[in-house]
Amino acid sequence: MLTAKLLVALALPLVASSQIAPPFDMQQLRNAKLGNMSISNRMAENTVMDLWFTDAILDHNDPQSRHWRQRYHYNDAYYGGPGSPVFLYIHGEWEATDYTVTDTGSLMVDLAQKHNAMIVALEHRYYGDSVPNNDQSEVSMRKYLSSQQALADIATFHAFFTKEHGLQGAPWISWGYSYAGMLSAWFKLKYPSLVAGAVASSAPVQAAFDHKAFMEGVTRGLKYNNGQECLDVFKEAFDDLHDLVVAGGEPLRKQFGACGPMTSLKDKQAFEWEMMSYFHGMGMTGTDHGYNLYTVCEYMKDSANGARPVDRLGKWKRAIYAGCAPPDNNGWSWAANPEFGQWTWQTCNEFGFLITASTGDNTPFNGLKYASPENVHKFSPCTTRFHVGADELKANVEATNAEYGGWDIDVENVIFTNGANDPWAGLSVLKQPKNPKSRFVVIEGAAHCEDAYVSHVLGPMKAAQRVIGEAVADFLKDATVEATPQPTTVTPMPTKTTMEP
């Protein structure tokens, strides 16, 4: 039996935060992974300094554009000299950390040692300390924050770093996880001569207006860890919860800590989406932390925690989140935080990724009727903050898929890796890619980006990492990179105009 005391202890990471994290937070996942690792797995943190590429270009579509500073880190401890490879770690929607290039528990660093590779990591524009001209305003983001600009940043940095370290002719491999995995694959697509190959882990390359498949992925994780009984218990709980939300009375406030009477559609949608969002992080992190799908299923199946499943769900919610939910009756309250504004804009402008209640027959979340695609978009920050209507968002999603290919991306020498239980896997490449020179691997029982860390246990993960290692070795073996300096500036072909405020 999972006691209430233990449940509260396991939930401390959530309670410590004043609001629910957005659904696509790789940095949170990375920190959680690192928290479980021995510090001995990493070099001393002060062995790598923050460095700055001072000739980063603000607008790659404007040859007269201003320059700005972009942060990077590198580690040449394993570098074998001229002709040895370079591993390029692409950061995504999070702050860059120096230990990315030194963490010996990571698969990338492990393979860098085997291949005598130099490791370099570049921070994404508008994240961490890489903010162009220190201007993180909405006006600035609308003009200069896009995946196309980010890819051109990488290409320009590639030219600088090659010249700075005399790396002409060295084969490069790009690495990326989550959104950065998308960039890793797209970098090989758009700048094929700059990297010999790419690793794209948990990369949802298919933009989507309605990402209902996310909660279907969470459902797979619930069933994988606890069986059909878990789904049945949650199905009853969420169906009964929806009835409470419809009524919007005192029972909802007492059982679930609702912030108010829940009379408006906005209130009801916000509450159901917020309850659903508690499962976003659990669905991505798997079962290697105390707070996970397995423990919550065990709690929900135990009648000692409440007579009915809905009673247990309410008790569980109050244990993991002490405040009323959602804060200020706004299920998107995190989007107002400047820390998340950049990613919010990117999803509205390019990717969609609106997580809505799944509608499949065998999912417990289909009872949350207020978390429909129409309602989620209506009250999402795409509408309320950035004023991107549903039709415009759908057009943005279509343009992104047309630009990069989505599921049908035609790019060589990329290995797409996914956990079978990752809620984002449905938007990634789960079968032989269109290009026969690229590969894929789906890892049984794995969640989001779990292949980033070296597995010492025999099983599907270790086998998958062997496949990744073989792919990297093959990409390097077949590399044909010209032994001449790359140009110092790169201008991408413009496709769609970034929306002005």
TrEMBL record:
Q: For this protein, what is any one GO molecular function term?
A: serine-type exopeptidase activity
Gene Ontology process terms (BP)? proteolysis
The alphabetical list of record keywords is: Glycoprotein, Hydrolase, Protease, Signal
SUPFAM superfamilies registered for this protein in UniProt: alpha/beta-Hydrolases
* Tagged with keyword Hydrolase: yes
Q: Does the keyword Transport apply?
A: no
Where does the UniProt annotation place the signal sequence? 1-17
Instruction: Tell me which InterPro entries the record gives.
Output: AB_hydrolase_fold, Peptidase_S28, Ser_carbopepase_S28_SKS
TM regions (residue ranges): none
What is any Pfam family matched here?
Answer: Peptidase_S28
Annotated family: Belongs to the peptidase S28 family.
Please state what the protein is called: Secreted protein
Q: Which organism is it from?
A: Achlya hypogyna (Oomycete)
